[in-house]
């Protein structure tokens, strides 16, 4: 008698990683957002050049296109910005812009797409920050050195209201860094 051994699919592995990251970030994405994030991660692994493009030019170029071509380009810009802001925040530093720059561009791309074709792109724009927080937690799951640095976390929290960045600031500020702990504890977290 032969036994059947089922290998987990890459979709199942990504799903498990996203679920673990949600728990680590103390964020619960709804099923639609979770599925979209898994599919975006799967698509990225097949096209790693996605994050090396100049997204601002692609975003501007999308205005010159129409129909499906424009929709695909706006989706790609939103997805790339999500991945850069969540998985590769160090790329923002290399490009001499804040992580919030990619957040704002990604949210704008998704919102424009929603304005054109509706669907769930409005939800992607609205929940960009929680998805980014999950991706930050994903980076940190196996390597705590993957935290964004304290000043970048402070800037990200201040610009976007990222709860994960705020936790990073709180954790870092308790270690004697120069950010005033009483100011952080009293900060408005309702972004």
Automatic annotation (TrEMBL):
<protein>
    <submittedName>
        <fullName>Uncharacterized protein</fullName>
    </submittedName>
</protein>
């Amino acid at each position: 008698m032969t036994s059947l051994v089922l290998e987990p699919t890459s979709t199942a592995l990504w799903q498990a990683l996203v679920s673990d990251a949600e728990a680590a970030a103390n964020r619960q994405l709804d099923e639609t957002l979770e599925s979209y994030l898994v599919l975006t991660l799967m698509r990225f692994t097949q096209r790693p050049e996605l994050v090396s493009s100049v997204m601002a030019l692609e975003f501007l170029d999308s205005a010159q296109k129409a129909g499906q071509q424009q929709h695909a380009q706006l989706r790609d810009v939103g997805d790339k910005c999500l991945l850069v802001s969540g998985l590769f925040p160090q790329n923002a530093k290399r490009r001499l812009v804040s992580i919030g720059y990619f957040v704002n561009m990604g949210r704008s791309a998704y919102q424009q797409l929603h304005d054109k074709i509706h669907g769930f792109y409005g939800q992607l724009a609205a929940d960009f920050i929680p998805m980014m927080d999950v991706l930050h937690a994903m980076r940190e799951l196996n390597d705590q050195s993957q935290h964004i640095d304290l000043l970048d976390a402070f800037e990200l929290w201040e610009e976007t209201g990222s709860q994960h960045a705020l936790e990073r600031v709180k954790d870092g500020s308790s270690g004697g860094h120069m950010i005033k702990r009483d100011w952080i504890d009293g900060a408005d977290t309702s972004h």
